[in-house]
Each structure stands twice: as structure tokens, then as C-alpha cells.
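FW: tagging you since you asked about this chain on Friday. Here's the raw sequence from the shared folder, copied in full. Didn't touch anything.
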Amino acid sequence: MDGESMLFALSNIVIGCVIIALCIPLRKNKIRMNCWYGMRFRKSFESDEHWYEINSYGAGRMIWWSIVLIIIGLLTFFIPPGSRAILRFAPLILIIPAIETWIFTKKL
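HL: got it, structure written out here
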């Protein structure tokens, strides 16, 4: 494995782990409404109930997709070098849980 592929593999793994670590307190409803940390949707700020419900749901989705990102990072070690170019965009899959959470807020 070349250095560039190693960098992409490790960065996907690290990004996934950091996102999971940041989402665990949100998932457990440990973070009160604030302007710095949490799922930042207008609906989140309408009430404490919405804040906790949206953040718990969003954190759960982020954790799930971060696990997918970690798996992609691990698989990078086993994929032939010519096939790895698309994996540079793997962190973009974290847009999916943001969209899922946005859709969830519309149902509240």
C-alpha cells in the first residue's frame, strides 16, 4: 500500500471514530440546547423536547454512517491501488445522515 492510500484509509478511520465520539453524548441526551454543539436545525431550537429528539436521532444516524466510513477505511487496505481513487470521497457519505435528520425534523 502506498503512502497516499494509507493516508486515506487512516483518515477515514479517524474521522469515523471522532464523529462517533462526538455523537455519543448527543445520542444519550447529555447535551443541553446550545449554539455550538448538536444538530443545527431551526426545529431543534423550538423546544427542549425537539432538541433532544432531533439530536438523539441525528447522532444515531451519524454513528451508523461513521461505522460505514470506518469499514470503508479498513477495506482500503485490501483494495488494489488502481481502484482506490473513488474512496477519497468516502467522507462525503456523512452528508447522508444530515439529510436523514433534516427529513426527520420535517415530520415533527
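FW: The two ends are 47 Å apart (CA to CA).
HL: agreed, and Residues 3-106 form one domain.
FW: great, closing this out.
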